[in-house]
């Protein structure tokens, strides 16, 4: 009904932002499959704008050649069909660890969200770094702190911001979202920096396999593949 009245693709302007709405399966196929590169431009929230570098994989400004190279590294090395298949045993082991932990806690109060978060985080850390970073028995320690820090960071980034609608107000940070985001992002960075430094020290011999893996990992997490120390994020 909507498509018949307005057409399969329409645009809505909300202040300075333009939102494109695709309302039919055919148009969606055209956008997502045929014209995906041309229509893949993304809106960067003002909160994130100060902390994004061109060589970030997840938060890149544009789908440029550098972004494509990093994506290719992920596809061929870290998340290829073979790599995912090889990781199936590790994923099963992590689920078994979680179930074993829950069995030991039978009859006691368990923070399920903390247990699931720790299991998922350790699964990803094993994919990227081949080791656990959180402990299931440390329910109110690092896992709890990291989960809260991630939640607060996402909350600051996802909260509707008047600066996105009216760019002239960006310098004022009226809602204080950018300040909160930078604060929580620095907390998380202090955690990931230790991991990255430890990894670099271990692979200081310069093995090519380690170099390729670490270049991809560092770009995903910190945007830093130069070998230099990471700078603290500051409010712009």
From TrEMBL:
Gene3D superfamilies (UniProt xref): Cytochrome P450
Pfam families the UniProt entry points to: p450 (PF00067)
InterPro entries: Cyt_P450 (IPR001128), Cyt_P450_E_grp-I (IPR002401), Cyt_P450_sf (IPR036396)
Cofactor(s) required for function per UniProt: heme
Top-rank taxon: Eukaryota
SUPFAM superfamilies xref list: Cytochrome P450
GO biological process, one term: terpenoid biosynthetic process
Single GO term (MF): iron ion binding
Record's keyword terms, sorted: Heme, Iron, Metal-binding, Oxidoreductase
Family named by the database record: Belongs to the cytochrome P450 family.
PANTHER family: CYTOCHROME P450, CYTOCHROME P450, FAMILY 76, SUBFAMILY C, POLYPEPTIDE 5-RELATED
Protein name: Cytochrome P450
């Amino acid at each position: 009904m909507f498509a018949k009245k307005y057409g399969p693709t329409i645009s809505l302007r909300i202040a300075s932002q333009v939102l494109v709405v695709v309302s039919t399966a055919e148009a969606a196929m055209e956008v997502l499959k045929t014209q995906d590169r041309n229509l893949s431009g993304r809106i960067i929230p003002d909160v994130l704008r100060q902390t994004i570098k061109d060589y970030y994989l997840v938060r890149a400004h544009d789908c440029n050649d550098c972004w494509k190279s990093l994506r290719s590294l992920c596809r061929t090395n870290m998340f290829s069909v073979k790599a995912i298949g090889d990781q199936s045993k590790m994923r099963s082991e992590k689920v078994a660890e979680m179930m074993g932990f829950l069995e030991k806690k039978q009859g006691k109060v368990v923070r399920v969200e903390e247990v699931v978060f720790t299991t998922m985080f350790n699964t990803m850390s094993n994919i990227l770094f081949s080791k656990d970073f959180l402990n299931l028995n440390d329910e109110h320690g690092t896992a709890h702190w990291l989960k809260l820090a991630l939640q607060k960071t996402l909350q600051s980034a996802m909260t509707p911001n008047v600066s996105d609608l009216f760019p002239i107000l960006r310098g004022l940070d009226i809602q204080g979202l950018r300040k909160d985001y930078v604060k929580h992002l620095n907390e998380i960075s202090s955690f990931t920096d230790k991991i990255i430094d430890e990894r670099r020290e271990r692979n200081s011999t310069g093995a090519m396999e380690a170099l390729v893996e670490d270049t991809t990992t560092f770009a995903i997490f910190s945007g830093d593949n130069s070998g230099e120390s990471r700078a603290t994020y500051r409010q712009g």
